[in-house]
Amino acid sequence: MNTTEAKTMSRERNRTSNNARLMKPVRCRAVWLARALGAGVLMLGSIHVQADYVHLPYNKGWTDNFNNLSFSASFSPSRDIPVGTVLQSASANGKISYNVTCPVTRTVTVTGTPVPGMTDTYQTNVPGVGVHFYVTAGWSGANYISVPSTEALAASSNGPTDFYTRADLVVTGPVGNGTLTTLPSMTLNYTGTCITDSAYNSPHSQSLNAGTTIAGRTCSVTTSSVSVMLPQAYTGRLSTTGATTGATPFNLALDCSQGTKVNVTLTDASNASNTSTTLSLAPGSTATGIGLQVLNGSTPIAYGPDSAAAGNQNQWLAGTAAGGPMTIPLTAQYVRTPGTVAPGTVKGLATFTMSYQ
Asked: Using CA atoms, how far apart are residues 293 and 282, in angstroms rounded to an integer?
């Protein structure tokens, strides 16, 4: 090899060496970029995107039903208290957590038989006693809405926060006796296009514990019909309107459970619309200018509609039973009415209706 060739080869080696040095940083950058990309993959892998959800009841791990509601072990309501009266209430806070990005519909249904005429109250096996359910209005809080219901809820996120359910025992008629064994139940369900996690959003039920004993305060009338014979009266003792004579005592007899408040309504059987204190003369009467009164103590009793409803017109309190036989003492008498007095036969007919409260 000559000198020129040797120099040329030396320059080529130098170029090769320089090229090698230039490639090393490139390889290092490639390794660094691969590591950076690998770190990026690991970061993305650590992110968990959770589906929209409604966690209810939150206190029980979200997928269970609510705890059962319970009423007292026993109680004694009055038989004739007004329809719609709440006898007892039971409520619970199940808590709720939610994250929804779309409008949601909450549907609450009741499994049971509605009380006729009361679409939101459901029958039990005890006469005169029904159940009315409520749930929290909106997403959360302590304000109630009546059930069954369908409510539109806006997209929202919160929790855990308060969510209440409630059941009322409601009077639906004359309250009977018995132990609650057949009871309705309530079911909540949330639906929306964004709710896809079925593990957290299945329907949730609210049930009631059976076993409450209801002993309604009742009475039985032991004198269902009473005839009162007034003595012969003389027109001279009934010379002015409002004058009375011939007072004759009689009794109504009952047998009642202890604590029962006995209310009575007398109704004029000859004139059902009569609300005065004078009983009309019944067919077969020949006297005129004469009527009849019934007194409770010294007070003439006004007549009212034939109804056992609490607060019936001219209903009056006869007393509170001590338990067992009970006597209501009354008095009947003649009373002078406007018009000409003519002697003859006086007959009157009244019915009495007991209301046990």
From this structure: 13
130 and 143 part of one domain: yes
pLDDT in tens, 288-332: 999 999 999 999 999 999 998 888 999 999 999 888 999 999 999
Alpha-carbon distance of 264 to 254, in angstroms, equals: 12
The whole-model pTM stands at 0.66
Measured distance CA(332)–CA(249) in Å, rounded: 6
In angstroms, the Cα distances linking 8 to 12, 14, 20, 73, 105 are: 6, 10, 18, 111, 86
CATH number at residue 347: 2.60.40.1090
- Integer Cα distance of 264 and 256 in angstroms: 14
Residues 155 and 109 grouped into a single domain: yes
DSSP state of 271: -
Do 174 and 191 contact (CB within 8 A), yes or no? no
Average pLDDT, the chain: 85
List the beta bridge partners of residue 221: 254
What's the CATH code of the domain at 126? 2.60.40.3310
Residues 191 and 242 in one domain: no
Q: How confident is the model over 38-74, as pLDDT tens digits? A: 444 444 444 444 578 888 888 777 667 889 999 999 9
Which residues partner with 53 through β-bridges?
99
Q: Indicate if 66 and 176 belong to the same structural domain.
A: yes
